[in-house]
Specification:
With 134 residues, this protein is of the alpha/beta class. It has helices at 2-18, 34-42, 57-70, 89-94, 121-130, and strands at residues 28-31, 46-52, 78-84, 102-107, 110-116. It is globular, with a radius of gyration of 14 Å.
């Protein structure tokens, strides 16, 4: 089973690499901090919240997709806030995230998209895009 997840993750990274992108345009991927999150929302920033757990195979499959997307020029203004499902239960509850592998997109304070357990690179890209629309 682990080999399937590793293969899926590497294949996904390969597909995303074909899209291009580089770290010169990288969006930020940071640990969740309530103050920084509220400040980013207050100025209307594009945000993706990644609620994940270290033991979760779906989260492991999502991670390289999220990192690759954050590195694309189209998402250079997106801040990805990582929430640890196990140690940040108060944040998980406040976001209404009932499971690990939850991704939530915001444009400022407006939630624009949400997914749970999605490992499809194209649909995660659409989630990122929802945060960048005016």
């Amino acid at each position: 089973m682990r080999q399937i997840w590793k293969t899926l993750a590497f294949a996904t990274v390969g597909v995303l690499a074909l899209w291009g992108g580089g770290s010169a345009f990288a969006g930020e991927v940071v640990a969740f901090d309530a103050g920084q999150f509220k400040a980013a929302q207050a100025v209307g920033k594009s945000i993706v919240v990644d609620v994940s757990a270290t033991w979760c195979p779906t989260c492991a499959a999502q991670k390289p997709i999220i990192e690759q997307l954050a590195a694309l020029p189209d998402f250079e203004d997106v801040t990805v806030f990582h929430v640890d499902f196990d140690s940040q239960k108060d944040v998980v509850r406040s976001l209404g995230a009932f499971m690990q592998s939850t991704l939530i997109a915001y444009k400022g304070t407006d939630e624009t998209d949400r997914s749970i357990g999605d490992t499809d690179a194209e649909s995660i890209k659409l989630l990122f895009q929802s945060s960048t629309r005016e």
